[in-house]
Amino acid sequence: MNVLVTGARGMVGGALVRALLGAGHSVVGLDRAAGGGAPQPGLRPIQADLADLPRLREIVDATRPDRFIHLAALAHTHGETDLSWERYFHVNVECAKNLFAAAGDRPVLFISTIDVYGFFDGKAPATPDSPLRPVSLYGKSKALAEAECRKLPRFDIFRLSPVYTPEVKRDIQKRYYLKPPWLAYRIGRGSLYEVLDIRTAVAAMVAWCAAEPSNSVRILKDAEPLDTAAVLRAEKAAGRAKLVLPVPRWAALAAYRLALALLGRRNKAFLLNKAVHPLRTAGSPGHSGTILHDA
Known about the structure:
The structure is a single chain. The protein has an 8-stranded parallel sheet with strand order 3-2-1-4-5-6-12-15, with helices on both faces. A 3-stranded mixed sheet has the order 8-9-14. The radius of gyration is 20 Å and the shape is globular. Strand 1 (2-6), helix 1 (11-22) and strand 2 (26-31) form a beta-alpha-beta unit. It has a domain at 2-164 and 194-221: Rossmann fold, CATH 3.40.50. Helices cover 36% and strands 20% of the residues. Residues 286-295 have low confidence and may be disordered. By secondary structure, it is of the alpha/beta class. The longest helix is centred in the first third of the chain and has 19 residues, at 85-103.
């Protein structure tokens, strides 16, 4: 296959490009950032802005991809200065629509997020068919982009749990650190969070290139959830997590209910919802992660 990957220089994008090349595919790697590093056989890096649809069409006509994997998005707030709804909508919805238009009738894999589900009540697990009630600007923009993707003749959507690597755990550390690595917290005896090893995510994307699109949604997560109690024991043993604040579960629930009553179903209450009612999904687990086994 000749696979066009957007966001090719990002954390997931870079790992995906390497895996696709290792599997024998050629890759057209699109990214807003300028390329760098030594040339890689089979990789054609191209600097491009997805907001420029005519340029996208030129790239597609010139490189003739067989498939498209759309990773590029505004997701993390670290280092970002403009986090307005207008920017989320432009990057995550309008640019996605341009990519979909350039793809035409060729298969597209759209990478989304479990944040599209919004508040979880701790009862029945969410499924690919569950209603979407996103709260965060990121989740709202991804849900809108999913709706655009569904208009394509051949597509699949992967909703990713929070992704980590052995080196980069920013998204999952929020579940047990206030100020890493010295100030941590534990709710009750610990919580279980669904997370996703980047290797599991990348393997699923590479496998998608060899299968016929099913026009469906798949949830990706590790086979075993992140156990904050076990993680904090390992962090303390490694000389990190200098101070762990124990938070009684009843206190966390009370704070959540108060926030819900005062703020309604808004983002700050949503953050507490994640802590007291971690999302459960009926997804497709991969292998167990290695978050406890790095130095």
